């Protein structure tokens, strides 16, 4: 265990005393409950904001289960992220109608413009790109959800316009803060 802790990056929540306290509390309260792993990972995502690889290793160690089990759950549910989410989230609907309607091309476009794949955040911490399941707006496929706002019938050439809405929001926030 000590060896593992020595190898944890200094900026990881496991290495930061305040965040480690939160992680330990969540683990102590839930690790012996049936279905405890899911509860723990949910709480970590909500309270820390992500579940890093070191956090996954720590959870596995404390619960005495294989790291692969923890990793399997984290990678299966798109709700979990392994890095902090950006200030804004762009989600691409991967439901059948949206997929057939052109979401893969939109994802490619996003990659060209933002330089990140789904599951990643732009280096400035502004935008996280994610995939999601059907959001119930199939008649407007392909659908992109920006923060909580649904944009329908998005064509690749319209995507930069959507990005501008995110940039405008960011500008407004920094103007209000100034
Ligand atoms: S498949 Fe995308 S909204 Fe239903």
What can you see in these coordinates?
The chain has 178 residues and is of the alpha+beta class. The chain has 2 domains: 2-76; 88-177, Glutaredoxin, CATH 3.40.30. Helices cover 51% and strands 10% of the residues. It has 8 helices and 4 strands. The protein has helices spanning 2-7, 17-30, 36-48, 53-63, 67-76, 96-101, 103-114, 159-177; strands at residues 88-93, 127-132, 144-146, 149-151. Strands 2-1-3-4 form a 4-stranded mixed sheet, covered by helices on one side. Helix 2 (17-30) runs antiparallel to helix 3 (36-48) and helix 4 (53-63) packs across helix 5. The longest helix has 19 residues, at 159-177. The termini are far apart. The relative contact order is 0.11. Bound molecules: FE2/S2 (inorganic) cluster.
Short description:
The protein has helices spanning 2-7, 17-30, 36-48, 53-63, 67-76, 96-101, 103-114, 159-177; strands at residues 88-93, 127-132, 144-146, 149-151. By secondary structure, the protein is an alpha+beta fold. The relative contact order is 0.11.
CATH architecture classification of the largest domain? 3-Layer(aba) Sandwich
| Topology, number of strands | 4
- CATH fold name of the largest domain: Glutaredoxin
**pLDDT under 50 segments (min length 5)?**
none
CATH superfamily of the largest domain: Glutaredoxin
Record the SSE blueprint.
Layout: H1 2-7, H2 17-30, H3 36-48, H4 53-63, H5 67-76, E1 88-93, H6 96-101, H7 103-114, E2 127-132, E3 144-146, E4 149-151, H8 159-177
Parallel strand pairs: 1-2
Antiparallel strand pairs: 1-3, 3-4
The structure holds FE2/S2 (inorganic) cluster.
